Amino acid sequence: MAEPTNHNDAGEVAPSTVDQQAPDVAEENAPSTDEAVATDIPSANAPDPATANPDVNPNAAGEKPTTEASRPDVDSQTAVDKPAKSAKADPGPGSTEKAAAKKAGAAKAKGDDAAPAAKAKKEKAPAVEDKPFAEFVEQYYLPALKTALEKQGLQNLDLSFVNQKVQVSGLTDAPDCWQIVGRWEGGRRQFNIYFFKDDIQGQRGFSFSDTGHKASTLEPFLIDERKVTLDLLLLGAVQRLNAQKWLVRN
Asked: Per the record, which residues fall in region Disordered (predicted)?
């Protein structure tokens, strides 16, 4: 049986084998030249341009999208997001006034709390030892000393606060100073507490006499105390008279 003839669309008889077709195709599409020339030979890996998606394939035959159309509008998206962030950050109308009012209220409360403390500190009375010398002796020391000695059994005690010369036997040209003079038993017994300066923290002295005579010695009084207080002045007088055996309870 005769072999069927292979015709192409133009009615020409095509070579029956690949070996017969290859020389013509190679000669037409691969001319002898040293320069690279594009050919119409389809690639086995290249997609059909007519069926490729123009949105993702630049080799597609259809209209290619522009750069602006192929990516999201970043500026537009940013512009949309910014108002949202601003709206979130915006505390709303009247918030500034509320914050200011809250801050003012806190400051007022703090001021109200501090006011009583400051007032209490201002109203704190000074210690009696910080009062003027004469006021301290006349209003605090003399009354307290009289009470303390009477509790020890001394009766008819006469206390005075005078500025006069130091009356000690053998002392010539004696200076004047403030003294507390105590007498009892009709003046037969007497003691003197001397303040050589108008200051209870200054130098102090003590003397005593019996049977109405002048004091025979002048001795220091509370010289070891760094700071003299009302209680120390009371204790010093009681201890000194007690050591002299002049208190009734001895």
From this structure: 1-127
Whole-model pTM above 0.70? no
Each domain of the chain, given as residue ranges in start order, spans 132-243
Per-residue pLDDT of the chain (250 residues; tens, 9 = 90+): 555 555 555 555 555 555 555 555 555 555 555 555 555 555 555 556 666 666 666 666 655 555 554 454 545 455 445 554 544 555 555 566 777 777 767 666 666 555 566 566 667 777 888 999 999 999 999 999 999 999 988 888 999 999 998 887 777 777 889 999 999 888 888 999 999 999 999 999 999 988 767 777 889 999 888 899 999 999 999 999 998 888 865 5
Instruction: Give the separation between CA 23 and CA 17, rounded to whole angstroms.
Output: 11
